[in-house]
Design goal:
This protein is 82% helix and 0% strand. The chain is mainly α and 425 residues long. The protein has two domains: 2-140 and 152-189, MFS general substrate transporter like domains (Growth Hormone, Chain: A); 207-420, Up-down Bundle (Growth Hormone, Chain: A). α1 packs antiparallel against α4 (104-132) and α2 (45-72) runs parallel beside α4.
Length: 425
């Protein structure tokens, strides 16, 4: 695959990456503005929870289907159509705000459409990256992506708050449309390679065969399946810690909104620093080691939060910065592993499947963590998450299917591809 990547890959890839970064920033502004509008208009926790559900469910439900579409179609066109569809429906929502006809259900419905567009866009971009970036640079690119997410998490909320104070909501929505155009424009001029067919003379598989093939491919590769399950379990354990943080800050540490906001800032700064570090360093030669070390390290930070005395809030502040720093170390190499090890014609399905299951774990874990916390203490889930994450990290060093996944991938990839019986796209 590397010999097909041109020498000027960086200029081509980062032109697309920059456009997508602007688009992501615009989407974050819209998300902030819509949540603020619903908060001000309704003041209802149920409405906010429903809005989150509409923004989450399409990506969970459509993931496997979207991944199959990505592997069968033009990834560049899928990204263009996804961004354009999101922009078009955002324009419709802006019109509803401008005309004074907007209703809460309009926001729910268009949030669902935007989420559906994201369900197709994410696997298209992620699976295209491995065809545009040399293998040895994938971890660094993943670090740059993590840095971008950290930067947006810091910048978007205050910028959104400033814009809400000076602009009507429809004008903020128009900013998202402009940034979507910035994301689309490079895609109109820069070609994105398609994965090669392995058996060009074989009959093309049906959509359903390709859809089922994604499940078979993962099931036939123990290391890949375990890596996906590891990512899913981490999501299950970590999601409630974020949701429970406001309670821990206010009820246990006795702090207010300023201190709660500072945690987001320190986490974001840590994430940016971690992304830059991974981008420059690239991680250990064995990518899985970088990821396991990252999980191992942030597990201790979570345990530090769980064990911090009520008068030592600074421990939580420092721990959040450490968690933010270690997140790119944990997530970046795993993303790079999927992009390196999985056959290009299977990446859309594999990444979408893992993303869907991991996201589905979030509401499930919240349903469990809430009653557990109410019945015990505010720190309980932090103890659970810290201990189990630590065990996952340690276990990864001793499970050959995970630890040796890079060395054994040729044999396992061939076995998985043979089981699927697919011909590629």
């Amino acid at each position: 695959m590397d010999n097909q990547i041109p020498k000027n890959w960086a200029a081509r890839f980062f032109t697309i990456f920059t456009g997508q970064a602007f688009s992501l920033f615009g989407s974050s502004l819209v998300q902030f503005a819509l949540i603020w509008y619903l908060t001000q208009k309704t003041g209802s926790a149920t409405v906010l929870a429903t809005a989150s559900l509409f923004a989450m469910l399409p990506q969970i439900l459509l993931g496997p289907i979207a991944g199959t579409v990505v592997d069968r179609g033009s990834r560049r066109m899928i990204m263009i159509v996804s961004d354009a569809t999101i922009a078009l429906f955002t324009l419709l929502l802006a019109y509803l705000f401008w005309s004074g006809k907007v209703e809460t259900w309009h926001i729910f419905l268009i949030s669902a459409v935007r989420s559906a567009g994201g369900a197709f866009h994410y696997p298209a971009m992620a699976s295209s990256t491995s065809l545009m970036v040399p293998k040895e640079q994938l971890a660094r690119v993943a670090g740059a992506n993590q840095m971008l997410q950290g930067l947006i998490s810091i910048v978007a909320p205050p910028v959104g708050a400033l814009l809400i104070a000076v602009l009507p909501t429809q004008n903020i929505l128009m900013i998202d449309i402009a940034t979507a155009l910035l994301g689309i424009t490079p895609l109109l001029f820069i070609a994105i390679p398609q994965p090669q067919e392995h058996h060009e003379d074989a009959p093309k598989a049906s959509f359903m065969q390709d859809l089922v093939g994604g499940f078979k491919y993962m099931a036939a590769w123990p290391g890949l399946l375990m890596l996906g399950l590891m990512a899913t379990l981490l999501n299950f354990l970590l999601a409630p810690t974020s949701a429970l943080t406001p309670l821990l800050v206010t009820k246990y540490f006795g702090k207010g909104a300023l201190e709660l906001g500072s945690l987001d800032s320190f986490f974001g700064v840590g994430m940016i620093a971690g992304g830059i570090t991974l981008g420059v360093w690239g991680g250990f030669k064995k990518r899985i080691v970088t990821s396991l070390v990252g999980i191992f390290s942030f597990s201790f930070a979570i345990l530090a939060i769980a064990s911090a005395p009520a008068d030592k809030f600074w421990i939580m502040v420092v721990s959040m910065a450490v968690i933010g720093f270690m997140m790119p170390m944990a997530n970046g190499p795993i993303q790079a592993l999927f992009q390196t090890l999985v056959e290009p014609n299977m990446q859309g399905r594999v990444m979408s499947l893992i993303s869907s299951v991991a996201q589905a774990m979030m509401p499930i874990s919240l349903l469990i963590a809430g009653p557990v916390t109410d019945a015990t203490s505010y720190q309980t889930w932090f103890w659970v998450a810290g201990v189990l994450n630590l065990l996952i990290a340690i276990g990864g060093f001793f499970v050959p299917a995970i630890f040796n996944i890079e060395e054994n991938h040729h044999k396992n990839a061939a076995k998985a591809e043979a089981v699927t019986g697919t011909t590629g796209s």
